[in-house]
Predict the 3D structure of the following.
Amino acid sequence: MMMARKQDVRIPTYNISVVGLSGTEKEKGQCGVGKSCLCNRFVRPSADEFHLDHTSVLSTSDFGGRVVNNDHFLYWGEVSRSLEDCVECKMHIVEQTEFIDDQTFQPHRSTALQPYIKRAAATKLASAEKLMYFCTDQLGLEQDFEQKQMPDGKLLIDGFLLGIDVSRGMNRNFDDQLKFVSNLYNQLAKTKKPIVVVLTKCDEGVERYIRDAHTFALSKKNLQVVETSARSNVNVDLAFSTLVQLIDKSRGKTKIIPYFEALKQQSQQIATAKDKYEWLVSRIVKNHNENWLSVSRKMQASPEYQDYVYLEGTQKAKKLFLQHIHRLKHEHIERRRKLYLAALPLAFEALIPNLEEIDHLSCIKAKKLLETKPEFLKWFVVLEETPWDATSHIDNMENERIPFDLMDTVPAEQLYEAHLEKLRNERKRAEMRRAFKENLETSPFITPGKPWEEARSFIMNEDFYQWLEEPVYMEIYSKHQKQIIEKAKEEFQELLLEYSELFYELELDAKPSKEKMGVIQDVLGEEQRFKALQKLQAERDALILKHIHFVYHPTKETCPSCPACVDAKIEHLVTSRFIRPSDRNQKNSLSDPNIDRINLVILGKDGLARELANEIRALCTNDDKYVIDGKMYELSLRPIEGNVRLPVNSFQTPTFQPHGCLCLYNSKESLSYVVESIEKSRESTLGRRDNHLVHLPLTLILVNKRGDTSGETLHSLIQQGQQIASKLQCVFVDPAAAGIGYGRNINEKQISQVLKGLLDSKRNLNLVTSTASIKDLADADLRIVMCLMCGDPFSADDMLLPVLQSQTCKSSHCGSSNSVLLELPIGPHKKRIELSLLSYHSSFSIRKSRLVHGYIVFYSAKRKASLAMLRAFLCEVQDIIPIQLVALTDGAIDVLDNDLSREQLTEGEEIAQEIDGRFTSIPCSQPQHKLDIFHPFFKDVVDKKNIIEATHMYDNAAEACSTTEEVFNSPRAGSPLCNSNLQDSEEDIEPPSYSLFREDASLPSLSKDHSKLSMELEGNDGLSFIMSNFESKLNNKVPPPVKPKPPVHFEITKGDLAYLDQGHRDGQRKSVSSSTWLPPDGFDPSDYAEPMDAVVKPRNEEENIYSVPHDSTQGKIITIRNINKAQSNGSGNGSDSEMDTSSLERGRKVSIVSKPVLYRTRCSRLGRFASYRTSFSVGSNDELGPIRKKEEDQASQGYKGDNAVIPYETDEDPRRRNILRSLRRNTKKPKPKPQPSITKATWESNYFGVPLTTVVTPEKPIPVFIERCIEYIEATGLSTEGIYRVSGNKSEMESLQRQFDQDHNLDLAEKDFTVNTVAGAMKSFFSELPDPLVPYNMQIDLVEAHKINDREQKLHALKEVLKKFPKENHEVFKYVISHLNRVSHNNKVNLMTSENLSICFWPTLMRPDFSTMDALTATRTYQTIIELFIQQCPFFFHNRPIAEPPGATPSSPSAGAPTGPLLTSTPVAGQPSPPQSPPPTPQSPMQPLLPSQLQAEHTL
């Protein structure tokens, strides 16, 4: 084979001719065999340059053009390719065809008139200036295309590609084509040039044609076949490269790939390119409004775009782009559609929310209805063009309204139907909810506090289950329970008020005894309102305790009607009536005469207080004046650095009333001192009416700390100070280094700011109280108290406005906000009447202490509690004081249709008749009464004025010479709360003095020097013993007595003198504190008695001695004694004449007047519970244990003293016997005060009283002392009866702690300590911890978890709280509770159940603050929590299942105490205790109100 001459030596060039069936339509059919497409794809493979239409029918001009050049072949141009062996070569491609004249449809005539077969086999081609062919459009427009001539105008053919069309051609027979190809092949074979058979159009190939073509090739020697598809660009390059390999034998043989395999590879390549291109489009095109022109320019340089366009063409790339745009638009429309559909239900709810309006409307009618709604255009937009998704509205993002034509779609109709169904379901559920509520309201089985589990079966039915979900009916039930519980509580509170007489007769105090609480239960037990709270015993008990607190400490805050207390309303009315806003500042400045004086306490440790006091004095003038805003103020400083419970360090003294306090600190220790001192000071005044120290303005100041070696940073001290200031609700002053010089604690500017704040606070605090007395009668002739009941169904404004609006009504000169002055004509003269407007509970405290000439008492005729409070009030009023009863009715008396109102009117009238009082009724519908209706009452008051004042003076004088309960300045007589400020040492002799509510000026102030009283009463031997008794009482925390007025005298019976003289003689031989009144093995019951038991009554009822002003002797007092006094039969009583000789008024003529009694003795309707007063009177058995009662029985047979016997006569007056018994108890040896703890006073411990974290380690998480104690108790004491309840010997416990502190390896068994001593020492360890074992923040979570009703959920919630404990606390708590669990397992022997153990241990482990009623009412909760921990110890700490309790769960409402809902434990008989310790007594619900020292002793 001869090769054509190469033009480039370096790059081989081959000339290839493509031949195949050609000719007219008759010969080749309607289309060619694909020679042109094959050449096109090979020469210009880019998809954009590939053309399917290459016509062979040409005009004469086109045939004669330079492209065809009157030849029957086309020059396709030159192609460079890299073959498989990576050698580049060039190829000139020529297509042999036959052009048809478009006129004659016969072959064009050319220079070569040979037939196609002959012409196609030509190896030498020549055509001068023949141009390269591109496509049919080039013909005639050659200048628009690239013009490249065939090289040299001639080519030498090196090989042939013989094309066979294997598709089903139109009007063409394949066999005929095969015959033509066979002839052509034979002609080509003659040239000796390489031939390759190319099967074209295989993408449309017929299997038989392909098979026949292969058969034809197999019949020829070495004839290779390549299956191609120019349209799909499959194997086109392979056909040409195969021919080149045959031409150049030196090249490697090309592997021929079957069509379908090659098609698969090509398809994968196209798919990959398509994916990359689509990714590129999705990355670039985000908006459906993008156009192809701009986007294609952006993608022009991207290889992804170029590859895909090369393979598939620009049109397909554009098509994919348009598909992406369409998809974006569709997604945008769907998003808008979803938004519209989501808003459609809201539009329905806003426009057509009523089911009745649309219940029977179709969607079409509903659409019309929507258009009529006023807010239609707020929700919908009506478009001119529809549908909305085919308009520009889809791009109007600002308009969020729903296209109204959306309502015509199926989803909108479905939403409308859903809206209808929803409304129907809501109507049905609402009906079910109403039915459920009605069932709850009408069912007799639903009672307050009943758990849902118990109520479910009575309430639920199938409809409720179907239409109401569990949270819904549970919420309804919870709300209903809350309502009925609140209603039951209100009704129960009203019941308590209806039994006001009972509570006041019992003389309840801060720690009512078990017996008194039992009486309350017995009396109220049959009341339905009491039974209504049977399931809520804890809440019921809390209400009773709260009511007791109100009775004992009546204030506006504790009033059950708070904040609508009558006192608050009265203050507002009086203030608004007499004080104009512009005068308020003037009033404030005038009401306090000491406004120009500032009394300042400076509290600080280690010299801080004295140092700052000196600095402040340095800023004052020579006369201790300080200038604030240009005004001079007298500044009095009281630096305090020690124990504030000592009198020398008290915040308040008789001559120093503090206006504020500066609290200084410069370390953690000094800050702790400040906090402890403030708390002690506030505790000392807890429960008193003058407890202004609780509200004393405080300022906490961090001062400079010189020589700081402790490592405490300024930041930490500031942070701690801010926390404490927040807790104390006081001002915090930063160090403010700028402006503070060296050696200065606080600068002058800060001092001025602090003093300004104190001045403002001082103006707002009414620290000066003036009490009306006889001395003040220059301002008022009479004092009347008008009492109103809080919560009565009438307006206090209507009752009081006639008084306040009277022209004769003026503001009281004493500055009180609840009293006014009236000037009324009574008889021949005008009288000035001071009218005090008070609630009943405020009036109780002034019945005995204050001079009152008469009472006007209001009550509501339709409220039982109102009349009950009136009866309770009148019981203790002396029968000489005039009373005016006023009944308030709904209307005129003759038209009352309420039986209760008629009964109460009748009873009020009968009470008035029996006490010789006056009665009137006022209709609430006509409340504008006039003061004239009280004129007869005022006349009665004037008539009795002298005897009332004389009686008042007598009572005060008598009380001044005895240790009565009036010395206690509590809101009620006999209140022990004022006796609860325990001193820290035996030197704590005198608590600060306080004033009574409106204390009379005629009452002497408390004397600080006892010798003064002795001097006043000199010459009376019996009274000298009372003075020693005073000192004994002071050691027992009883305030000193009141100093009597010298002119007033009283008499003591001979019997009293004999008895007192006996005590006096005993005191000469042996001190009072060392005297012994009980056997050595007894105990001191006075520690368990109420302070009332320690009170000495001035005299019994028969001693009718009092004084009146003498008409003829100006300024003198005449003593009057009843000469008809009955004689007592007691052996110690003497005659009257013996006392006459000791009277300073002997020889004076006296009047014969009978002593007044209380109204309770005159009226059968008063004092219905008086029997309880005698049962629980002074010295009665109510406050005593069984041993004490036995002693009393023995004493009734006779008492053996040192030299005297005092028998109790059976016919002796019981009140007198109680007085004598009280005197005996007060002169007996008081219980020695326990010595201070050895760990606190005589030795410094590094183990006890330190934080828990300092005595444990990760290796030993349990303190060694606790471990030793528990091991010892479990080894020897699990069977000990009353373990942890019976206290051990205090000195032995302290000895045990001291020995262990010195030697941690102490063997308890060798030392032979008792089990109770070890148990007490272990409890003492926890009591002395700085913080309780159960942290305070965890206690809050525990209480919240305990409120859960479901038992299992409650236990799991408690367990979750337990996990939050600090690690050290958790481990020790787990250890102790596990031990108590084991102790409780032996309860049949040791009698200590989990309940008893929890009662003994919960105060030690939790130590809550009992200064609030919330903590008081939560005591049962705290105890129950500890009991649950002990009972369920395996569940809480050892991952065991929940154990079933032996009985009712302690926290369940049904688990009541055996003796009543108010008793939290059952008395358990204990073993005899050492003389130092009292025997175990049943726990009272008021136990938490015991002082902390006594509480610790009681629980140890």
Notes: The chain has a mean pLDDT of 74.
